[in-house]
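It would be a great kindness if you could assist me with a short task in structural biology. The full record is reproduced below for your convenience:
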Amino acid sequence: MLKWRGFLISDHIAALKRQAREEAAGVPVLPKMAEGEIRATLNRAYTSKETVQVQSTDIDPNLNLYPVVEGKVMGSNGHDSLVLDTGVAIPIGRIRSVQVIPYAVQ
């Protein structure tokens, strides 16, 4: 059993990496917005307390965009960064796209 332990661990790691690549490849590329449009959308979402989806321009080591982050706009941290209720802070200059998620009808 000890002989196979290393093999099983490396197989498991390879499967996890493959799963992460597949998930990252499924990230939709949202259209790039102008900074003024981004600020206007964030301001509207902040005043109306709506949830937003934010996609940054950051890429992972495999050259894929990071997944879209979702949350309510809490404001900025003084360094010209957006702060969401999830604790995520993204510099405004590194935001690719912002979409307001409409309220669910119940």
Notes: Helices lie at 2-25, 35-48.
